[in-house]
Amino acid sequence: APTALAFQGRPVDFDNDGRIELVTTSYFGSPSLLQWYSKKMTESPASGWEFRGFLNMAAHPETPLAGPGISTIDPVDWDNDGDTDLLLGGEPGTPMIAINIGTENKKVFSAPTRLRFTDGSFLETYSSQLGDGSHHGPKEWFDDRSTPRAVDWDQDGILDIISGTQGRRIYWMKGTFVHGELRFNNPKIFMLDGKPLLHPHRCFPDVVDWNKDGKLDIAGFNERSDLVFYLGKGDSELVSVIPLSDTHGKPISASPKIKDPSINASPSGRSGVAVADWDQDGILDLITFKHYFDGRVLFYKGIGDRTFEEPVKLFDFFSHLAGPGILDWNLDGHPDILMGGDYRRLAGLSYQMPTEDRAHYYVYFGNSLPVPSAKK
Fold first, then answer.
1. Residues 285-298: tens digit of each pLDDT
2. How many Cα atoms sit within 13 Å of 174 on the Cβ side?
């Protein structure tokens, strides 16, 4: 099977040929990645199964968009037709794209589809191959908690993917067109000072030209879960790290508990950051999601010189890994916040926190938040 684990299998004569096929969910039961297997003629009921393909959920204007399990969401014009498509991350290391088949004024998305490597195979990454695996052990070595952003990292005019991992790394997949389809090279781990960059697990970085040198940089976290910028030069070698601080000179942390950063099980990660001029004062601000601060989405006003004011809570959003993404969704001139949901329907029973539906996506309109976004 092309994904590591599958469960919830159901026997059914799917194609009405008189023989039983097997339809299963993919790893962690992703609703958009049903898989179809047919059986060759063998004596053993456990052997001879052949993967036939994915059965994507049908798209409909009134159907909530469902993505790959615990989800991140990055708005991008993927097909260069002038409207917003959605690049989706999630629990399996299988980034997906949902194409806008409507208009920018009335967005309707196709069912999410898999991306491909340049050789035509389905794109899938594993935490055991991209870093330290998982502190949960072998059961999570074969997923990757992908958190993709679509950006032209090397500035060749073609979109690439920058993503965090479960294995405490950030990687770059260079995009290229093959037979008119956007495909991707194998991932390259980012290096800093000649060593693989350590980045907390399951974190959602952002990409922006921070120092205005014409090269893209990465907003992310260091090994102690403090917010930083990694300055880039268009390849997998990062130039330097720029720490960010509050008005008291203290680091901006995504985790209230910090253990030895050399221990993979440190309670860090599961956080995200988006960089935008939220208040339109000409200085970049930060919008962060912090799982370890009870699922809060926070606004940090930038005041220049790598310094940010004390955070203001915009809203609660409890999820493993949720975003944020920034886009003027309703075209009113105010930037809005996109968030990806979790599977925490039952989490409220034990965590006493608000929960969001798994694999659904949400828009928080900027002009209605405690710190409203300024109109562009």
1. 999 987 655 678 89
2. 11
